[in-house]
Amino acid sequence: MFDRTHFVDERTLSVSVKNKGLNYGLGCIDGIRAFWNEDKNQLYIFRLEDHFERFHRSGKALSIQIPYSVDQLSYITKQLLLMNRTTQDVYIRPICFKGGNTLRPELQDPYNHLAIYADYIDYEPKPSLKVGISSWTRMGSNMIPPQAKSTAGYMNSGLAIQEAALNGYDEAVFLTEEGHVSEGAAENIFIVRGGEVFTPPIADDILPGITRDTVAEILMEELRIPISEKSIARVELYEADEIFLTGTAIGIKPIIEVDRRRIGKGEPGEVTLEIQRLYNKIVRGQMPPYLFYCTPLY
Q1: Dihedral angle of Cα 129, 132, 137, 138, to the nearest 10 degrees
Q2: What is the pLDDT of residue 232?
Q3: CA-CA distances (angstroms) from residue 40 to 83, 90, 197, 280?
Q4: ∠ at Cα 52 (50, 58), nearest 5°?
Q5: Contact 227, 217 (CB under 8 A)
């Protein structure tokens, strides 16, 4: 079943400069996190199968066939973490890309390479963020579909992140071609207003994030706060009581300024902080009703 699978030192790997995946961004990725629970001496991989199911959906949308099943990918990931004797928070990156060395950027050839690696960099940015609306428009669903995690699509994010940094912001927020709020450079966005929570719909060129889905569940099941998908105008960000970003890498992060306009009281809001608190407990296996999301490694 796994005769083509090898675990190797990442420093020994190489890709041809002719590789189509490298030259044209013909690939897809996903991002998974595992969280260490010191009290239980256990590493919990959060929503492992859900991430690999999305990985397969990305591959299908982009005509990049993933050569292993969800169960096989989950098994390989666990073996990788065991071999590295992982006892700390970790980010896991699966990537599948076209392996051919032909010049034409076609997707029909069946030569797909797959790799999974673990990254132990601390992914906790500032406790709250100041963001700016990017001059770069979010790529549209009829361009490179943002609902799939394509490697090529992250040039869009890279340009927005660079612009945000040059302008003194921590992160960028994209608008769609129609002027609706889409998402952060690599995160989903939520606003809190008048006791309700709103987030852009998939049609506004967002990636349907797994953390986004978890936050919706927290809001409905734990906080009993109404949540709706709706198109959000730029000005609604300025008028929001609270804003926060969600994503696998950053978790839940409050936004306290947009375009140098203070949001709410200019500090993380109560709703955001409570979502953050509950999410951090869930991912570490500290809330029994959500343990089915947490795959124990040991």
Answers
A1: 10
A2: 98
A3: 20, 17, 34, 15
A4: 105
A5: no
CB burial readout 103-118, b (16+ within 10 A) else e: eeeeeeeeebebebeb
- Beta strand 112-119 with 90-98 is antiparallel
Q: pLDDT at position 10, please?
A: 86
Q: Quick check: 59 and 28 in contact, CB under 8 A?
A: yes
Burial class (CB in 10 A: 0-12, 13-18, 19+), 89: middle
Residue 124: its pLDDT value, please?
63
User: Contact 249/123 with Cβ under 8 angstroms?
Assistant: yes
Tell me how far apart the alpha carbons of residues 67 and 21 are, in angstroms, rounded to a whole number.
16
Q: Provide the residue count of the chain.
A: 298
Neighbours of 12 (CB within 10 A): 6
pLDDT value for 110: 82
Q: Which residue has the tokens 């990725």?
A: 29
Contact call for residues 140 and 49 (beta carbons, < 8 A) = no
- Residues forming the active site: 149
Residues of the chain with pLDDT under 70: 1-3, 123-125
Which helix (DSSP H) or strand (DSSP E) does residue 155 occupy?
A: helix 154-166
Helix, strand and coil in the chain, % to nearest 5: 30, 25, 40
Residue 12 has what DSSP assignment?
A: G
The beta strands (E) that lie in 141-241 are given as 171-175, 181-184, 188-193, 196-199, 227-229
Distance of CA 41 to the CA centre of its chain: 26
Amino acid 123: pLDDT: 61
